[in-house]
Amino acid sequence: MLALMLAGCAADPTPYQRTANGYGFSDQRIEDNRFRVTFAGNSATPLDTVRNYMLYRAAEVTLESGHDYFVVVDQNTQSSTSYRGTGSTPFGFGTGFRGDGGFGVGFSSFSAYPEDSYTSWADIVVGSGPKPADDLNAYDARDVLGQLDPAVLRAPGTMRVVPPQPQPQPQQQ
Question: Cα–Cα distance between 98 and 20 in angstroms, integer?
Fold first, then answer.
């Protein structure tokens, strides 16, 4: 029965969505070509998922702002631990053999277990054209979306950013 109670308390991982109830993505323009992008997951959202969703949002922000690539100039991931517990203290009232009443308190053990949740953020600078080949912190936004999209679990109603296709360059003769 305890296993069923614990299973009922388990939350679903945070879906890819704008921040709701403290969980999801957010972004803020800091300068014309600089943004801060954040994704916060609940305790059922794995660390890798939180980091991937943050990068996914960075790619969306890049394309939404009319750019092609982004450079991560600063990033961090923070964890937060809360504790959940199970246990109870039963109370009872009963009648004895001779009609005597009684009141009792039972004791039980209490178990607490940690639940970690993660928030990942990055400051990005967006740019146009091909990503700088010599910068390991540079990401092609369309490539990031293409690689990560199959693993993104969206909340109902969350729209997918369809990356515009790059315009073919006229050939020089």
Answer: 60
Instruction: Give the integer Cα–Cα distance in Å for 8 and 60.
Output: 35
Cβ distance 68 to 123 under 8 Å?
no
Contact between 130 and 142 (Cβ < 8 Å): no
- Could you report the per-residue pLDDT of 7-64, keeping only the tens digit for each? 445 589 999 999 999 999 999 999 999 999 999 999 999 999 999 999 999 999 999 9
Q: Using alpha carbons only, how large is the chain's radius of gyration in Å? A: 25
d(CA 86, CA 79): 23
Phi, psi at 60, each rounded to 5°: -60, -45
**Which DSSP state fits 155?**
P
Report yes or no: 141 and 69 within 8 Å, Cβ to Cβ: yes
